[in-house]
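Entry 12.
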Amino acid sequence: MKFGIATFITDRGIRPVPLGKALEERAFDSLFVAEHSHIPVDRRSPYPGGGELPEIYYRTLDPFVALSAISAVTERLLLATGIALIPQRDPIITAKEVASLDVVSDGRAIFGVGVGWNREEMRNHGADPSTRGRLSDERLLAIRELWTKERAEFHGEFVDFDPVFSWPKPVQRPHPPIYVGGGEGAFPRVARLGDAWLANSVPPAALGPQIERLRSLAGRDVPVTVYAVREDPEKIEAYIALGVERLLFYLPTTPERDTLKELDRLAEVAARYR
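Predicted 3D structure (tokens):
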């Protein structure tokens, strides 16, 4: 079983460089960082976690800047967006950012993606929440073209460009793995465009049947990473029995001293199952 960390990197928590060093020193295999460009003050979209929206959502660092800083001080840690909000991202710029991270990290980038929940945030980027799924699919297809073709072009409903040169190309071939986040509604996207499913806190009893449905739809053995897993030994063992590829512990955003103590604790939990 592989164990990674999912967190929000902000201006008020541990900085990226000491975080990356600490994760690699403690043998975590990956870091998945959240993204929000901003949070509208007048927001009507309910927070999925319930209650008030934590301030970490509007204090996040740009994920590619943070992950690039971490890449310079690590050698093995996989560097992932968890998740990048595709309806809010220009596909040409995003393709370059992911490919650049893959180059500077010597092939350690993972592109975790999702369609998002905050409708007001999307609208500020010019995205229509009602079509965000189709928009995301087109942008992912366009990004793959930009990564894999010398003269890339795309003509769709939302994305349209004539042949272009776009470099660098990713180190990983054919491209960095795309981890698709979301529930069962995202399964067609996983099957068509994804290399893995990023499941959000799904308990083992529910996850098993979902994995079977996903693999039946995709016609292949889709790897599964579970986001925000509790450190419950019974549940961890159940995930292992399901053949899950990776479990991500959620790391609260706190100052460096507190973060390192929490990482020590989580590393002890992970060590029991390696």
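Annotation: The chain has nine helices and eleven strands. The first strand starts at residue 2 and ends at 7.
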